[in-house]
Amino acid sequence: MKRICVFTGSSPGTLEAYAAATRVLARVLVSRGQTLVYGGAKVGLMGVLADAVLDGGGEVIGVIPAHLKAKEVAHRGLTDLRVVDSMHERKAVMAELSDGVIALPGGLGTLEELFEMLTWAQLGLHRKPCGVVNVEGYFDRLLDFLDHAVGQRFISATHRGLLLSDADPTRLLGRMADSRVPQTGKWLGGDTRR
């Protein structure tokens, strides 16, 4: 995995632990020689992530819709900033550029982007591993809900396994590198909770 797409919040959230974990992920990406692909903004955890990768000497590709760039949200110091016409195009470009997907804490946009990538994996449209950095248990209730949906037969256990979770960014990236999504969309990875 040479390029990792990271979805995260345009807000910093309430806990310093969110920014701290974001900086740890940035250091891990740089140490592994992996390029960050993200939403191109300079605010919230998005800005923390981009700045930390850049400060470490890493490469950052940002993808931002023109309407957000116009609101002065775009990060101006990136290795490569790509301006697109819509949110749909943004997601498509980010998916095309990346070899794996990680979500850090974030809101509706973060969740929507993550679940679109998971759905595409379920449908066999890509074979990219997907994971969440579960900082301070931020994603616990979401993971519990997915387990509930499996119990209610709305999600298969195989498709539930498409989402890896770990509190440690280094461990998560290692698990993602060891996992493969076959063309059918079935997952060959291991434990999905922690």
Report what the structure shows.
This protein has a single domain (3-178), classed as Rossmann fold. 43% of the residues lie in helices and 16% in strands. The protein contains 8 helices and 7 strands, in the order E-H-E-H-E-H-E-H-E-H-E-H-H-E-H. The chain has helices at 16-31, 44-55, 66-69, 87-97, 108-122, 140-151, 157-160, 169-178, and strands at residues 3-7, 35-38, 60-65, 80-84, 100-103, 130-133, 163-166. The protein has a 7-stranded parallel sheet, sandwiched between helices. Helix 1 runs parallel beside helix 2 (44-55). The relative contact order is 0.16. The model is unreliable at 184-194 (pLDDT under 50).
Topology:
Blueprint: E1 3-7, H1 16-31, E2 35-38, H2 44-55, E3 60-65, H3 66-69, E4 80-84, H4 87-97, E5 100-103, H5 108-122, E6 130-133, H6 140-151, H7 157-160, E7 163-166, H8 169-178
Parallel strand pairs: 1-2, 1-5, 2-3, 3-4, 5-6, 6-7
Helix pairs in contact: 1-2
* H and E order: EHEHEHEHEHEHHEH
- What gyration radius follows from the Cα positions, in whole Å? 16 Å
Give the integer mean of the pLDDT values.
92
- Strand order within the widest beta sheet: 4-3-2-1-5-6-7
CATH topology description: Rossmann fold
> Ends: how far apart?
21 Å
Which word captures the global form?
A: globular
Q: Per CATH, which architecture?
A: 3-Layer(aba) Sandwich
Helical amount: 40-55%
Summed up, the helix count is: 8
Structural class: alpha/beta
Give the strand tally.
7
The portion of residues forming beta strands comes to 15-25%
